[in-house]
Design brief:
5 helices, single chain, five-stranded parallel sheet, Oxidized Rhodanese, domain 1
Length: 157
Amino acid sequence: MKKIFAPIVFTILTIFVSLSAKAQTSPKPVPTLEVSVPWTDSQLIEPAVLADHLKETGPNGFLILNIGAVDDIPGAKHIGAVNNAKNMEKLKNTVIALPKNTPVVIYCGCCPFAKCPNIRPAFLEIQRLGFTSVKVLDLPINLKTNWIAKGYPLASK
């Protein structure tokens, strides 16, 4: 009986394992978090372009607004982090009386664009107020990496 029992148990176990086993597959790719941006590529200004402009003419021609909690670049008006209602109000009061075609450059640089709590609300608010020439300083990582480490100037304190 032992001779018959062992092959039967082995066959049953083999069938059970083969029915319950799944083929090894690669894990499903984890979807990347797509963060929408309200600006177009043409509404970005590269750090090198703004730095060259500042070197040649100073801030003339642009209203540069620091809407974060980072160092000021030359000529920037420090608004502060606009995720704070008081600073958002300061932003509105700074631009409200200006001609709507005033070239405005905003930047934050506290963290990567994807996580920044300031850049989108500021951009959208300035557009909502009717400004037609709004640019975002392209600091996809942060001010330190995309501006300071490249040797671009900061305002003297």
